[in-house]
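Subject: mismatched residue count in predicted assembly?

I count 226 residues in my input, but I want to confirm that the predicted structure covers every chain. Input:
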Amino acid sequence: NAGVTQTPKFQVLKTGQSMTLQCAQDMNHEYMSWYRQDPGMGLRLIHYSVGAGITDQGEVPNGYNVSRSTTEDFPLRLLSAAPSQTSVYFCASRQDGTAYNEQFFGPGTRLTVL
Amino acid sequence: DAKTTQPPSMDCAEGRAANLPCNHSTISGNEYVYWYRQIHSQGPQYIIHGLKNNETNEMASLIITEDRKSSTLILPHATLRDTAVYYCIVRSSYSSASKIIFGSGTRLSIRP
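Triage response: the counts match. Full output below for your records.
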């Protein structure tokens, strides 16, 4: 299994540009989520999904959209990039919503918005 | 989900046991204690979790106090590769979705 994969690894955008960060998992996990991590800070939850077709907001959802058309994929869209969205973005997945299973993280996407 | 409090940083000598404390005084009966670590900007890595009994796996041990208001993660023989930020998280078995909330964690430095 590849686990959780994210593309691209690095990205530089100009203010106002849009882009999509890709996330995929091959473990047939129901739950997927996106976090951002600013320098020296912990992770903050952006959006999450409890299954295909179902998404919800986390702590810091503004400026981001998500969709979950398949179990495997959970892309994160930046509609109009702003310098405040410069961060490292992590995608994660786990089997289901119970507390009995661990969360697997991808390697991250480092985004810079100029 | 209950909030956790951890010291911002700690250090430990290589080969010694590293004991990382976590306070979760508002924890409720159905909430589990999880530990993750993040090594130098990689994605966080799961370490261990528990409800009320002490737990041990190949990476670490988790000691939860009887009143469950605090816990300690123990790395029995710390190595330089254990240098990381360690996150203590509590969440309910009944929580909806992937709402695992990370705090600021403890930055553990292992000195040679």
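The mean pLDDT of chain B is 90. Marking this ticket as 'not a bug'.
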